[in-house]
Amino acid sequence: MADAILQVRTPATSANLGAGFDTLGMALSLYNIFTVTEILPEGEFRAAVIGEGARELTDAKDNMVIRSYIEACDTWNIKGAGFELLSNNVIPLCRGLGSSASAAVAGVLIANGLNRVNASDDEMLRVITRIEKHPDNVAPCYLGGMTVSCLDGESLRYVRLPSLPPDMYVVVAVPNVEVRTSMAREALPDTVDFKDAVFNLGRSALMAAAWATGRWELLSWGMDDRIHQQYRAKLFPGGDVIMDRVRDIPGCLGAAISGSGPSVLALVKGRPRKVAETMCRTFTEYGVESLFFVLQGNADGAKVTYPGQFLKKSG
Ligand code: HSE
């Protein structure tokens, strides 16, 4: 591999966590790594991709990391250099695990790092959220841990909560079915019933409070939802059965569709094997191949390295 001039590591994320639609999200211990291997003249870019998207994402002008870099440079009025980018993609695409947020965060971090902008976290998140409109993926990807975020037009307010404790696992089953976020949003109704809105308000507030205070036994309530998952579960085979099955397994504290799906996630205290097997067996019963990851929460968010040593983000 060519020498690294700058390297960014971005975590996968799971948005919504059930009740917290468009608001809650957590960072996971699964990473894409983006390496700037050569500086090129302004406006010139080359891209190589290993792993997820290796066939689709090699055209530099369609590469989301590069597009985000250009947009960040424009926002900051910088004539940024071009570069050659090597993406090592592990986060599955179009599976509700924040692959677009990962690319947007990386592009803005590269713009910040190569051009020595030294933007604050607030400014970084403002720019990234303008590019990738889902703060419930962007904020945990950038900051790590679990985040509560609210976007109003271009104004963003967020709070970062700690990551999961080390004895808790995040089991993620990833079916071999792509669901684009736009399609998963079109599946939602235009209005929600008042009682269902109240249900979700209470559950998502409980979820944030339980997470902040380590009351993990409340997650099964906090991850319950009545406004989006029942519609989205119909977009992939087995979706409506899988969560019911894993919720009953001892140690499973809560389960949800990850982001806009189709991956399904369960938070597990203790041995995660039975949950993982049940998820994949259920997808198999419905004729869908799947793979699973047994992950932990990520506490650090995105990291920038200049050869030698990891440095924290912008600072
Ligand atoms: N909160 C968004 C949704 C996440 O569920 O549509 C998109 O990744």
Describe the structure.
This protein is an alpha+beta fold. The protein has ten helices and twelve strands. Strands 1, 2, 3, 4, 5, 6, 11 and 12 form an eight-stranded mixed beta sheet that branches. A four-stranded antiparallel beta sheet has the order 8-9-7-10. The protein is globular and about 55 Å long.
Number of strands: 12
- End-to-end Cα distance, whole Å, is 28 Å
Strand content: 25-35%
The helical percent reads 25-40%
Query: What is the overall silhouette?
Result: globular
Q: Enumerate the spans where pLDDT stays under 50 for 5 or more consecutive residues.
A: none
Q: Mean pLDDT, as a whole number?
A: 92
Largest sheet: 8 strands, mixed
- Helical element count? 10
Please compute the radius of gyration using only Cα atoms.
19 Å
- Class from secondary-structure proportions: alpha+beta
